[in-house]
Amino acid sequence: MDQANTSVLDIAFGRPAMIGFILLLGTYLVTGQIIPGTF
């Protein structure tokens, strides 16, 4: 039972983290800046 809960938590935290990483990578490829408008 504990293993199933850990798996659900891994998915719940992992999916938004991967989406954020892909957005960060996409922003860098399009603009050439990690934080657009800062440097």
Automatic annotation (TrEMBL):
Keywords: Membrane, Transmembrane, Transmembrane helix. It comes from the Bacteria. The chain crosses the membrane at residues 12-35. This is High light inducible protein hli13. It comes from Prochlorococcus marinus (strain SARG / CCMP1375 / SS120). The gene is hli13.
